[in-house]
Amino acid sequence: MAITRWDMSKATESEKKSSVNDDSMTLNEIVNDLAKKNPFLKTPMKRRREEKEEVSAGEKRLEWLKEKAKKAVIPTEQVSTLKPEHIFLENGPLIIHMCLECKKFNSTRTVTNLGEGKIQLPLGLCTICRSHINRQRAVKFFEHELPSIKKAYDL
Ligand SMILES: [Zn+2]
Questions:
Q1: Most exposed residue of 3, 62, 95, 111, measured as fewest CB within 10 angstroms of its CB?
Q2: CA of 49 to the centre of ligand 1 (A)
Q3: Segments making up each domain of the chain, as ranges
């Protein structure tokens, strides 16, 4: 399923506008435009109005995310099993997406010095973060590695 951005239509519109502006703006217009965007030259009233607009855009996005999240599934312990020999011995970099709750948890843990130039960072991961590692590995294997081999060997 394709992921659509909540502000996609707005972004494309402003992109179109800015590309038109770039072509037709003179140096004077660019300087004036920059001066207009300078927050230090704005009246407090205008600045406050713009800040409010930013806040409401953030709130709008949060509402949009909450609506989408209703259909999301929180992974079970069963699908979140991680085996160190699998995740650490793969080719390529290991990228871990960590949720805010896990980041906060790990930030309060201590770092252990293991000697030989190595330290051990805490790595507490909830089922969402662990199952995501598994999903990432599966997607990479089935949707990148295997098709690449198929192409390379003309299978
Ligand atoms: Zn997490």
A1: 3
A2: 36
A3: 8-69, 78-152
